[in-house]
Structures are given as structure tokens and as C-alpha cells.
Write a structure and sequence with these properties.
Helix content: 40-55%
Mean pLDDT: 88
Structural class: alpha+beta
Number of helices: 2
């Protein structure tokens, strides 16, 4: 069997971000900078790009996963069940080919998922606003009774 060299994510990720186009940048993962990176768009979309370090030399794959956004402060978004997308690619692909795969196979899923996620967050924010309004109304009623 032929073994595949493990790509260096620190050089691969910035090249992929450049190939994705305007608005994309690469950031090293804070906990695993040697093995993974975040591709972040200025509009907030984010993709994890990483190499499976534990794969056999014959099965090295570059993986990309859409990331769930951080919810607003005070809003708890429990397991949404939303698939933000995940793809794998051959480790022998160039940055341009990886960017093309991410654009074609991952970003459409991520975009649709973000719409779903935002609707869920909007609903949670509206419910929280209703609870707060009800609590304030009740508190005001209790204060006037004394």
C-alpha cells in the first residue's frame, strides 16, 4: 500500500482560506494548532479544517466541518440536532481543490443549517423575552399589593 504524507495544517489552512475567496481567513485552533484550524468568514460562518492524526498512513484524510455559532449571552441552545455539515477529502488534494470541495459540498449545508439555527435562536430569544415580561408584570403586581 502507498502511504500518504500528513499535510501540514498550518500551511494548508491559510492557502485554503485564500482560495475560498474574499472575506475568508484562517486561524489556528487554540488547543490543537498543529493539527487543526478554523476557516472564518467575515459574515460569521466558520469551518473547522483538520487532519485525522490517528489515521493510518494509507488512510490520511483532510476533514472539514461546519461549526455551530456561539449563541447570544443568556440564551442556552441545547442540542439542536442540526447538521452543520462534514466532509472528508484526500490528503493529496491541493489547497485549491480542498477549497473547491468545501465550497461545493460543505458551504451550502452550512448556510441552510445557519438559517435553521438562527430561527431556533430567535424563537428562544422571544420565549425568554416573554418570560421576562411575565416575571416583571408579576413582580409589579406583587409590589402594588403591599
Amino acid at each position: 500500500m502507498v502511504s500518504t504524507a500528513m499535510p501540514d495544517i498550518r500551511t494548508l489552512a491559510p492557502a485554503v482560506a485564500t482560495c475560498l475567496g474574499a472575506g475568508w481567513r484562517s486561524e489556528p485552533h487554540p488547543e490543537h494548532p498543529h493539527a487543526s484550524a478554523f476557516l472564518t468568514h467575515e459574515d460569521g460562518r466558520q469551518v473547522s479544517l483538520y487532519v485525522d492524526q490517528y489515521a493510518s498512513p494509507q488512510a490520511v484524510r483532510v476533514q472539514a466541518s461546519g461549526r455551530e455559532p456561539t449563541p447570544p449571552v443568556g440564551i442556552l441552545v441545547k442540542d439542536t440536532g442540526i447538521d452543520f455539515g462534514h466532509i472528508t477529502m484526500a490528503a493529496t488534494k491541493s489547497a485549491r481543490q480542498i477549497a473547491a470541495d468545501v465550497s461545493r459540498r460543505l458551504l451550502p449545508t452550512l448556510a441552510a443549517s445557519l438559517v435553521q439555527w438562527q430561527a431556533r435562536v430567535d424563537k428562544l430569544c422571544a420565549e425568554e423575552a416573554q418570560r421576562t415580561a411575565a416575571a416583571n408584570c408579576l413582580a409589579a403586581a406583587l409590589r402594588t399589593r403591599r
